[in-house]
Amino acid sequence: MNSYNNKMENRIKRATGQLQGILRMMEKDRECVDVITQLSAVRSSLDSLIGVIVAENLKSCLLDDSSDKDIKIEQAIKMIIKK
What we know:
The chain is mainly alpha-helical. Helix content is 80%, strand content 0%. The protein is elongated and about 55 Å long.
């Protein structure tokens, strides 16, 4: 997949804003639990976005008639289960 839609880009921008907010929280010495809660929210958002991007990639691979379709699908699977 070579192009990303506006929804995906907006999710990245939202996560960027959340991270900037977390930095401000840390600069103001906010409670650890509040900072961790916000960090967990950002992580969850990014994990969800990764799933969306990989799913879109898989869809385009399955519709593609190229000979390297199996390689692309294997790469997508490795991205999902990366440890």
